[in-house]
Amino acid sequence: MDEKKRMRSPNYPYISLERSVTLAEKLFDSNKRYPVPIAAAAKSWEISPTSSTLPRFVAALLSYGLLDSDGEKNDKRVRISDLAFKIIIDKRPNSLERKKALIEAALIPTIFQKLTAHFPDGLPGDETLKYTLIADFKFNPESAGDVIKIFRETMDYTQFYESGIISEEQTDSEETSMVKGSVNEMSIKVSNPPIPDLSKLSTLGIGVDASLEREVAKYPVGKDTSIRLIATGKITQKAIKKLIAILELNLEDFPNDEQSMPLTGDEGLNIES
């Protein structure tokens, strides 16, 4: 095939998030959070500094937000990121914070954001995934299989489709307390202070026409306090249940009753569905 006509796939992580976290742990064990040359990272991963695998490992950890880097080529240094540090040190059983951090990392790669948005109700078979990667996201058929494998491993590791962030009612009659579909399906915006860094979970690149926004409701929730719901798209009971579940998940990030969170002007709580 002519090199000029060869189809090149978009970027995707070389390895799964689980393996990337293991590499981050090894780098942390050897060097803590100090910036180190790439050769030092290779040593902690027990591979040669000249191995073709080394830059792929580094690129994968960068794509998941597990590394920070500085410098170019021979002067390049890497260190464990804040997100990786949060994951590595959290050894608590069933830690919700660690689960949220893992899901945040899993959704940093652009293609994983797009796939979870494209399939919010669970993953289809490999043939459907392969067709979507090739037809919709312009992947080379030869690399689509690798993407599917790495994506499935990452979703299984984070329990993305089973977690409390993304589970929803199976039928209209079932009661649920969890949310199905990507956290990206809704963005929650409050002011001073904001919800902790979930910004990477709301970067799907799906544009919203501001002219389609409308006020769904306004609720008094206390003395001199009310909340407006600004939404786009179709608002259903299912969408509201998702909103409730996400608010419950992030409840601890809001001020307690003794504190305050002033909302002024047009600032408020926005739902984008």
Class from helix and strand fractions: alpha+beta
The strand count comes to 6
Cα-to-Cα separation, first versus last residue: 43 Å
**Order of helical and strand elements:** HEHHEEHHHHHEEHE
Overall 3D shape: globular
How large is the share of residues in beta strands? 5-15%
Helix and strand arrangement:
Layout lengths: L16 H15 L4 E2 H7 L8 H11 L3 E4 L6 E4 L1 H8 L6 H11 L3 H9 L7 H10 L5 H18 L55 E9 L2 E7 L5 H13 L19 E2 L3
Parallel strand pairs: 5-6
Antiparallel strand pairs: 1-3, 2-3, 4-5
Structure description:
The protein is of the alpha+beta class. Among the domains are: 17-89, Winged helix-like DNA-binding domain superfamily/Winged helix DNA-binding domain (Arc Repressor Mutant, subunit A); 183-254 and 262-270, no CATH class. The protein is 37% helix and 10% strand. It has helices at residues 17-31, 38-44, 53-63, 82-89, 96-106, 110-118, 126-135, 141-158, 237-249; strands at 36-37, 67-70, 77-80, 214-222, 225-231, 269-270. Helix 1 crosses helix 4 (82-89) and helix 4 packs antiparallel against helix 5 (96-106). It is globular. The N and C termini lie far apart (43 Å). The relative contact order is 0.11.
